[in-house]
Write a structure and sequence with these properties.
The radius of gyration is 19 Å and the shape is globular. The chain contains 9 helices and 13 strands. It has a domain of 214 residues: NAD(P)-binding Rossmann-like Domain (Rossmann fold, 3-Layer(aba) Sandwich). Helix 7 crosses helix 9. By secondary structure, it is α/β, with parallel strands linked by helices. It binds nicotinamide-adenine-dinucleotide (NAD) and uridine-5'-diphosphate.
């Protein structure tokens, strides 16, 4: 199968490309390297079934393929808030171009959506039926509303053109190859702990997240893509093990043996207070659930960061 992965040079995309190659596919990775890096896919450059296209999905693309995974979009708050207009364009126009390509190519297309469609949820855990609590005008809205509009577009393409679609709502995922400077909490805390710097906790650290190890997430993504046609999602994927940000900091300090201290900083606007996926639907329809516990995944991630920053 010829498979297109947009955003394939990013954190999740590079793991996905590797997995798809291991499964015997021909993989075309399209990325403009906005937040991704060639370092993430360098080892694939000599692979006979791998192709890299430097391309911005805001522009139409024409590629022969049977499946498309649409991951192209800045994903960390630091990056998606740098140029919010660009974030909305990458999200919406990117999806529009990918959907048009899927129509022309007759391809199945999967959208990497997000738990951010639930905003700052007043319900926990969040099932897919929960419609969310999202600000349309706050600093996170470019990303949240961009992704919500894309979900709408995907389902309209299905209703209007009968397109074969899949929508996956990804909850916080971490692992090797997160960019060390993309500002997300797991990479920030690990780098700070390894360098003995203060661990920057935004707010009081009582807000919660549920962290999924990358290999589990990628297994879920390919399971959804290759599942039955009538199961479109949207489907939550993530690890329901919920932890406060302060507890996460303490766990990372312990696992790294660091002497770092906690430093409390201002809480960014609209920061969700809690987030935990209800994954009953993924379990029932795809037989998928995560297998890697938080400490196990953090140890693997810490080891990879040690190599990266020379510890
Ligand atoms: P990432 O920033 O590492 O990867 C995004 C990739 O998309 C990068 O390689 C970037 O260069 C590329 N990109 C951005 N704009 C582009 C454009 N206009 N044209 C072409 N390429 C472009 O982030 P990630 O964590 O790997 O996230 C991948 C996808 O999964 C994103 O769509 C994100 O919204 C979604 N997601 C991720 C998480 C998570 O916890 N990692 C959670 C929810 C959703
Ligand atoms: N966070 C923090 N310190 C950091 C980075 C993030 O306390 O150095 C907090 C952030 O305010 C949020 C949580 O950790 O409450 C997760 O942040 P991240 O940017 O990783 O993801 P998201 O907010 O999109 O879930």
């Amino acid at each position: 199968m010829r498979v297109l992965v947009t955003g394939g040079a990013g954190f999740l995309g590079s793991h996905l490309c590797e997995r798809l190659l291991a499964l015997g596919n021909y993989v075309i990775c399209a990325d403009n390297l906005f937040t991704g890096s060639e370092d993430n896919i360098r080892r694939l450059f000599n692979h006979p079934r791998f192709e890299f296209l430097r391309h911005d999905v805001i522009l139409p693309l024409s590629v022969e393929c049977g499946q498309i995974y649409n991951l192209a979009c800045p994903a960390s708050p630091r990056w998606y808030q740098k140029d919010p207009v660009y974030t909305m364009k990458a999200s919406f126009l990117g999806a529009l171009n990918v959907l048009e390509l899927a129509r022309t190519a007759g391809a199945r297309v999967l959208q990497a959506s997000t738990s951010e469609v639930y905003g700052d949820p007043d319900r926990s855990p969040q099932p897919e039926s929960y419609r969310g609590c999202v600000s349309t005008v706050g600093p996170r809205a470019c990303y949240d509303e961009g992704k919500r509009a894309v979900e709408t577009l995907f389902f309209d393409y299905r209703r209007q053109y009968g397109l074969d679609i899949k929508v996956m709502r990804i909850f916080n995922t971490y692992g090797p190859r997160m960019s060390i400077n993309d500002g997300r909490v797991v990479s920030n805390f690990i780098v700070q702990a390894l360098k003995g710097e203060d661990i920057t906790i935004y707010g009081r650290g009582t807000q919660t997240r549920s962290f999924c190890y990358v290999n589990d997430l990628i297994a879920g993504m390919t399971a959804l893509m290759n599942g039955p046609e009538n199961f479109t999602g949207p489907v939550n994927m993530g690890n329901p093990e919920e932890i406060s940000i302060k507890e996460l900091a303490k766990t990372i300090i312990r696992l790294t043996g660091s002497r770092s201290r906690l430093a409390f900083k201002e809480l960014p606007a609209d920061d969700p207070r809690q987030r935990r996926p209800d994954i009953a639907l993924a379990k029932r329809e795809l037989g998928w659930s995560p297998t890697v516990g938080l400490e196990e995944g953090l140890k693997l991630t810490i080891d990879s960061f040690k190599m990266l920053i020379g510890y």
